[in-house]
Amino acid sequence: MKVTLIKNESKELVLEFEDMDVTIPDMLANKLTRNNDVLFAGILQEHPQVKKPTLVLKTEKKKAMDVLEKEIDSLEEAFSSFKSDLSKSK
Prior knowledge:
This protein is α+β, with helices and mostly antiparallel strands. It has helices spanning 23-33, 64-88, and strands at residues 2-8, 12-18, 38-44, 54-59. The termini are far apart.
């Protein structure tokens, strides 16, 4: 997965995801919208065949990159726990 940093300001972050559908960016945006530090998180995609969805993140007080990294860590923990639970049920 190739991610291009389009904009990296203290309170605003824009990332472009190349050669993929909106699944991962949408998952991130969904998780980010539940964070109290986030003013806006959403996906922009001009056309599904372009395959370059863009994640836009705007925060109020905390640095946007810090908030994004925290939520990615949270998702990693959730998937790790899910994987562990799934392995136990085999």
